[in-house]
Design a protein that fits this description.
Largest sheet: 2 strands, antiparallel
Low-confidence stretches: 1-6, 12-16, 19-46
Mean pLDDT: 76
Order of helices and strands: HEEHHHHH
Structural class: mainly alpha
Number of helices: 6
Helix content: 55-70%
Length: 149
């Protein structure tokens, strides 16, 4: 009964995290993965070596982007046009849209893990990239380098 709700919230967090370097927002998860939180507490903790994880982070973003675009286009076709930014957060979604959102969230989480990152690390790097111009420039360079290969 609660599984779709948890998957939807987890997915929403992943979607926001992967796009937050553009929007300036960084979501996080509570201890039980059932509550969306907005804070900078991850950045206040002892900072891991972001530069060391930046390649993994960049690869995860690049792998998630085609999935994000495909999911967005599928939802757009079903909903018939422009979508609100928080479409997957809506509670009154039709089943096909809910399924697309859940699939995107679950596959994004798997991509993050397959690239050697925890969701917490991914969100912490996202927050740090948003705040740290030097790290953002390093990420941009890494993304360009990886796109070229």
């Amino acid at each position: 009964m609660f599984k779709p709700l948890i998957n939807t919230r987890l997915g929403w967090v992943l979607l926001l995290a992967s796009c937050s370097w553009l929007s300036g927002l960084a979501p996080g998860l509570s201890d039980h993965l059932s509550t969306l939180t907005w804070s900078s507490s991850a950045a206040a903790q002892g900072q891991p070596k972001y530069e060391k994880l930046l390649g993994n982070y960049a690869e995860a973003i690049l792998q998630m982007e085609p999935l994000r675009l495909q999911s967005y286009q599928q939802v757009q076709q079903i909903m018939g046009g422009a979508l609100p930014k928080n479409i997957c957060k809506k509670s009154d979604l039709v089943a096909p849209v809910n399924n697309i959102c859940d699939r995107f969230f679950n596959e994004s989480a798997e991509i993050i893990r397959n690239n050697g990152l925890s969701l917490t690390d991914f969100n912490a790097i996202t927050e740090e990239v948003r705040k740290n111009k030097s790290l953002k420039n390093q990420l941009d360079e890494e993304l360009i380098r990886r796109k070229g290969n």
